[in-house]
Amino acid sequence: MKKILFINGSPRGNRSSSLGVAMYLSLFLNYDYEFINVNDSSNNNTVHLTPQADEAEPAFQSILEKIKTTDVIVWTFGVYLGYVPVKLQYLLDKLIAQQYYFKNKSAASIVTSINIFDNYALDKIRLVSENLGFSYVGEISAEANPQLGYLNEKNTETACQVLAKKINHAIEINFLPTPKYPDTYRRYISPVHFGNYFKLNKAKVEKRNNKSILVITGNKITKDAEALSIVEIVRNYSINKVELIEIEEYKISTCTGCLVCNSIIGHGCRFQKKDRFNEIIRKMEASDGIICIGHSSSGFVDVYLKTLMERAYGLFHRPFLNPKYGFVVITGGGIIGNDVACYVNDFFSRIGVKTIAHLGLDENNMTNIAETIHQYVNELDSAMAEKWEILPCYSHLALDAMLRNRIASLGMMLREDFLYYIQNKLFIFPNLIKTTFFFFLFTNNKIRNIIIKRRVKKVNQKRKARYKQIIQSGLVGKGKNLNAITGCPVKYN
Ligand SMILES: Cc1cc2nc3c(=O)[nH]c(=O)nc-3n(C[C@H](O)[C@H](O)[C@H](O)COP(=O)(O)O)c2cc1C
């Protein structure tokens, strides 16, 4: 009996937007399907997934058994800081570290996001899927809404029908598409592949300046010889005071996706008082320089640094650390290290760290590595002392926004572009009067909830009506849901 398994990574449980989209898509499957959530302890009754990549705890084993008996996996998640929510990364890390390879199976992805780095997340999940042996049949990236599950209702639903068709077809004819990524990447996405120790043969320098540098690593440096080498070079050759934070030691809890940090002013992360997250943020604020050393894992950065980044989501949109200086190094990433370094660099730039360099260490190209890190340290010392100007370099989306701005202000000159953007309603400028009105209205929780409830009701009515038409036209799939999920944001019947 052929089967499809939706592996949902959202920590938002049944409020998950990506789950809502997956639930809709499942209606068009011709084969039986099942939903599991990596955050759910009911996968094995007792224990959750752990961050240790080489551990095969009961939660992992029960998910593994389900993967083994399935034909198509559908990774279902909201984009969390450019990749999967960290607990889904725990699962990917374990599958890679423990050398699983699945033959004759396929994978697809359903993601929801606000379309920032959704392409990056999709590309990385494809890289991991193919390196785990899955052939990749397709994907959907839907624009999310925390209450409604998804926006652009009709388009998203049509896209779901298309992906369901592809999944049905792949199972029907045993179709395994050509991979985009060869499995030579496996070593570099492994959370347990570490590079070699290196050092600089020069006399240590005196701590003669009064600035402070905070070095942040995800893993403990005793695990990662490259990270240890970098920390030693910073300690020995910076003329400033150096402090080290190994996030793994801080045992900070993972983001729950509650979005309080983003929607309530001055609240920060709801969990900041209960664990040591805030302590790390305070140390970052108190330092003059920040050096981030991450490790390449599952196509992204290690789970500890990823956890910190997710928890800092509410701070992510504003350069709250400005002005600080720093640099970013990713260890163990081989040919993809620089890609990961670019993303992490982007994150630190956005929160206000003027980064003088970012580098992914590639074991095949370590020429002058100790000297290069030494040079970064010297430059960081100078940048802090002389307040170097480092111009920001934004992602393509920021460039898009800038372009729209340009087109608007130069509308008379860029007439073609101006018209195109106006006609296709592509300007994202808010209506100032309307926005200000809602801003004040939404400070009252009661009014806010009434407005949201009304909108949800209206949209759900329209969705049900569309779904009714689909049932009448006989497009609904023959597959059965093997485990009932309740409380999903989107309801059709
Ligand atoms: C910690 C956190 C990080 C996020 N990072 C991104 C991001 O990098 N890009 C993006 O477009 N949306 C981002 N979002 C928005 C989510 O992708 C969006 O709300 C998604 O629908 C959540 O899916 P879920 O409800 O299934 O968890 C983030 C949300 C959270 C809570």
Summarize the structure in words.
Helices cover 42% and strands 16% of the residues. The two termini are 27 Å apart. With 493 residues, it is an alpha/beta fold. It has helices at 17-26, 58-68, 86-97, 118-131, 153-172, 186-189, 225-237, 247-250, 260-263, 277-286, 303-311, 313-316, 337-350, 369-386, 396-409, 415-423, 432-441, 445-472; strands spanning 3-8, 32-37, 72-78, 106-113, 135-145, 149-150, 212-217, 241-246, 289-297, 300-301, 324-331, 353-360. It contains 18 helices and twelve strands. Strands 2-1-3-4-5-6 form a six-stranded mixed beta sheet. Strands 7, 8, 9, 10, 11 and 12 form a six-stranded mixed beta sheet that branches. The protein has three domains: 3-187 and 454-472, Rossmann fold (3-Layer(aba) Sandwich), CATH 3.40.50.360; 193-386, Flavodoxin domain (Rossmann fold, 3-Layer(aba) Sandwich), CATH 3.40.50.360; 402-444, no CATH class. It binds flavin mononucleotide. Flavin mononucleotide binds at residues 10, 12, 16-19, 78-82, 112-118, 144, 146, 255, 257, 259, 310, 313.
